């Protein structure tokens, strides 16, 4: 029986470089011989990607925050059962662009929903599943939004006011502070080379720990 894989999530607000750095991590980890699933939230499955479109599209009807929350967890439930859990059980690593910490940041911090509502859904949908390591790419909101707006058309979340993203960032940092070591906060305001140097250090820690864990199985 193979050892269970590692579950790594990458979190952060808008414009912090998640896509670029996930591609970098993917190349590095595959180069180290890691059997890797790279996925994203919301999305990751056929149903999840359909829900992602509904969540991100700009429409003429306001989306109720509770409806938004339930759509997020509907996508997550399908994602876990069809992609994430099978990969981890088979010994593969999973590298996921956002997960439930984003829900705490955006729906609790940004929208003002109660922490307890997200916690209840987290326990229902995930059971005992939690990330082994979370990489938080952190940068001042003004820096991130300047980068995001330079990419072109904005989605429904990216059109929010700066105060929304300040609350999102503050929630992420509070989660990291209380994470008991699961989080690695990466200063994403630095140059890309400096950011990736920090990421490589974390990768070395993870692969070393994985090697020990794997040998013990």
SSE inventory with pairings:
Elements: E1 7-11, H1 18-31, E2 36-40, H2 46-56, H3 65-89, E3 93-97, H4 100-110, H5 115-126, E4 133-138, H6 141-149, H7 162-177, E5 183-187, H8 192-216
Parallel strand pairs: 1-3, 1-4, 2-3, 4-5
Helix pairs in contact: 1-8, 2-3, 3-5, 4-7
In summary, what is this structure?
With 217 residues, the chain is of the alpha/beta class. It has 8 helices and 5 strands; from the N terminus they run βαβααβααβααβα. 34% of the residues are buried.
Describe what this molecule looks like in 3D.
The mean pLDDT is 92. Strands 2-3-1-4-5 form a five-stranded parallel sheet, sandwiched between helices. It has eight helices and five strands; from the N terminus they run βαβααβααβααβα. It is 57% helix and 12% strand. The chain has helices at 18-31, 46-56, 65-89, 100-110, 115-126, 141-149, 162-177, 192-216, and strands at residues 7-11, 36-40, 93-97, 133-138, 183-187. By secondary structure, the chain is an alpha/beta fold. The N and C termini lie close together (8 Å). It is globular.
The helix content, as a percent range, equals 55-70%
N-end to C-end Cα span:
8 Å
User: Which class of secondary structure composition applies to the elements?
Assistant: alpha/beta
Average pLDDT score: 92
Radius of gyration: 17 Å
Shape designation: globular
The strands making up the biggest β-sheet line up spatially as 2-3-1-4-5
Low-confidence stretches: none
In terms of DSSP E residues, the strand content is 5-15%
């Amino acid at each position: 029986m193979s050892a269970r894989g590692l579950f790594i999530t990458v979190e952060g607000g808008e414009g912090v470089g998640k896509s670029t750095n996930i591609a970098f991590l993917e190349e590095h980890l595959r180069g180290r011989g890691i059997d890797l699933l790279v996925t994203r939230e919301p999305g990751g499955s056929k149903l999840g990607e359909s829900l992602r479109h509904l969540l991100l599209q700009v429409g003429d009807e306001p989306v109720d925050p509770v409806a938004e929350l339930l759509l997020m967890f509907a996508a997550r439930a399908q994602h876990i059962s069809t992609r994430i859990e099978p990969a981890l059980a088979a010994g593969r690593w999973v590298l996921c662009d956002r997960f439930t910490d984003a829900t705490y940041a955006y729906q609790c911090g940004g929208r003002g929903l109660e922490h307890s509502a997200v916690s209840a859904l987290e326990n229902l949908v995930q059971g005992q599943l939690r990330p082994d390591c979370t990489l938080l790419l952190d940068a001042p909101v003004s820096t991130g939004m300047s980068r995001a707006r330079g990419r072109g058309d904005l989605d429904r979340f990216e059109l929010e006011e700066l105060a929304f993203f300040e609350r999102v960032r503050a929630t992420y940092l509070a989660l990291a502070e209380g994470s008991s070591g699961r989080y690695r906060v990466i200063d994403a305001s630095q140059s890309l080379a400096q950011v990736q140097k920090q990421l490589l250090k974390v990768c070395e820690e993870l692969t070393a720990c994985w090697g020990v864990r794997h040998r013990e199985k």
